[in-house]
Amino acid sequence: MTDFLRLAEDIAREAGDMLLAKRPTMSGEVETKSSPTDVVTILDKASEELIRERVMAARPGDRILGEEGGEAPGESDVRWIVDPIDGTVNFLYGLPDWAVSIAVEVNGRVVAGVVNAAQRGEIYTAALGEGAWLGGERLRCTTGVPLAQALVATGFGYSVRRRAVQGEVVAAVLPSVRDIRRGGSCAIDLCSLAAGRLDAYYERGINHWDFAAAGLVATESGARLGGLHGRPVSPDFALCAAPGLFEELHDLLAPLDPERDA
Ligand code: LIP
Per the record, a Pfam family (predicted)? Predict the structure, then answer.
């Protein structure tokens, strides 16, 4: 596990340094994906290429799932799950909340995760059963926060039909919580929760590469991560908070039927 974590951290650091160096001149070169607001920059692709090359050089035969390149087949029980830039819109606009996210899964279970929030100068790491860390500091999520006092992060998908429902849902949540944050990077939201900077997070429509590494950071900080009605976290729905607050927020969200699109 330590070897996986060390390798993932070295690679995430190298990708983050490359992105920091090239962003000022190259971030404007974009293509669109699922909708006109869903963008991929030339640097998302360059970052994923770099990560794939480094993983393949060190661990030939492992499988890799990446946001931009899809799944590369392989025989190994080990799969690397890569988001080369989570928070691409922030990256494009020069906002600091974007991250390189790398998780290592063994037999379908994430055992190590690294989130390099390079422009913040923060690298979050976690290993299964061994805790979550920001540099030398062990992370613990907030506990005992009632829903009415909770600072809750969420996000919105790129499709208009999904956003219409997400707007309704957040309008219903807002009067019951301290406040809402929309940071623009699922990975950073989950790491911020692990660091006690947020109390809860929910979102419909995030992908495996968005939450694989940061989800481990959050759970290793003591938070519960799951879907609605006892289901595991998935692109259908992600909810994360300390036990207690998780259930309170779940019971507010579930009747709103937030897994639908308009
Ligand atoms: C983004 C997420 C963000 C979410 C967006 C999108 P990308 O990832 O991290 O929180 O609200 O829908 O999925 O596209 O920047 O990798």
Answer: Inositol_P
Residue 110: phi and psi, rounded to 5, are -70, 125
Read off the pLDDT of residues 112-129 as tens digits, 9 standing for 90 and up: 999 999 999 999 999 999
* CATH number of the structural domain 2-138: 3.30.540.10
248 annotated binding-site participant: no
Among the atoms of ligand 1, which is closest to the Cα of residue 83?
A: 16
pTM for this prediction: 0.95
Please give the number of the atom of ligand 1 that sits closest to the Cα of 188: 9
Domain extents in the chain: 2-138, 147-256
Assigned CATH class of 147-256: alpha beta
pLDDT in tens, 49-103: 999 999 999 999 999 999 888 987 778 899 999 999 999 999 989 999 999 999 9
Q: Does the CA dihedral 184-114-116-221 come out positive or negative?
A: positive
